[in-house]
Amino acid sequence: MFSTVLIANRGEIALRIARACRELGMRTVAVYSTPDRDSAVVRFADEAVHIGPAPSKASYLNIPAVLEAALLSGAQAIHPGYGFLSEDPDFAEVCEANGIFFIGPSARVMQQLGDKAAARAAMAEAGLPVLPGSTTALSGPAEAKETAQQTGFPVILKAAAGGGGRGMAVVRDPDDLSAAFQETRAHAYAVFGDDRLYLERYIDDARHVEVQVLCDRHGSAIHLGERDCSVQRRHQKLVEEAPAPGLSEELRTSICEAAVRGARAVGYVGAGTFEFVLTPSHEFYLMEINCRLQVEHPVTEMVTGVDIVREQILIAAGLPLSLRPGDVVPRGVALECRVNAEDPARDFAPAPGRLTEFVPPSGPFVRVDTHALPGWQVGPDYDSLLAKTVVWAPDRDQALARMDRALGEFRVAGEGVSTTVDFLRRILVRPEFRAAEHTTGLVAKVLDADE
Ligand code: MV4
Q: What is the reported pTM?
């Protein structure tokens, strides 16, 4: 077992991981950039190492600096959190080469699944449903046109190196395909340094349903059920819930078992998320696989009672999963709202500043994952997530009432600081959200209602 773990991340997730390590009796090493020197995780951890200035490239993405911090502090393992180096196969490889456990899947699996076109092909091979589309990267607009004629319109062009909604374009009119191809390819090259694109039939009014899996090094693979993450704005999730509402038991079982089958097929190890689109007629198709802990993991923890970060660490240390498929029975409903330091009135522009007041909600069945404190300087350098408000209740109506109560308790103030709290409350009261009939178009509708 590890005695010291380095946390290669910042913000709420770094603190979340440090807490799991402490409960396991492990020493924690935080790393921090200059503006994060007084952060909550730096105070919480047993040791903290400065790894560079504010720009991520110079600190949280700086592999030599992170590695040196691990070697100097005697860490045997590194937890990468989400974002930053969490899905970088080169980083995982460098860790292993230096005798440090990377808490996540192998470099080989991250490499394979990081190519979204290759992942799609591998999952089709494993028998998972994927949408009609290209099986390899498209050579050019001509091949795109040919493929789209077979799948039918609308189609979506996606960057092979993309994911999470970055580098995508929906094309409804065949006449627009060629221009969209060129544009998406140029964008993919600029953002990812990789211009390969693939294409799929596009599903309108989809829901985003994802399955959490856990796999050990000894061939055991289980799922922890599914989450619905359909409330998104520009591919940023705003509200997530577990379980996904309105799925038949049969559908739930098929999606979750498909995810486990996919994980086994590639020899996945660790915690992973299989992302599906659910069509209005309740067919599901695999979109992509995320090789990391996800922001929204707490909703799954709340309904299953499983500490996913603890399981990640134990898996990396080589322990067999202590959970068996029948052990995980989801109970009740959990909701998460992401409270961001953004101004909805200014197109969700980041609204950083020093917090003069920060009182998160609490009370029964409320969990707030945050690194913010009164006096904390919300900086312009990183994403604007301030706090994840998570609630649990026996049923969805009570969970909604509880979330509204919790968000209503939030007190955040500071020079220049705005938050998304009120906007989130307006989503929760929408009739289609209350009836669980919403799709990925909901946020746009709420925004249109403002105009
Ligand atoms: C799709 C889709 C419909 N059809 N692909 C967005 C994030 C990335 N992981 C996959 N995404 C989607 N891919 C096909 N073939 C719908 C989404 C999607 C979405 C699209 C537009 C607006 C909001 C969305 C929210 C979630 C998923």
A: 0.97
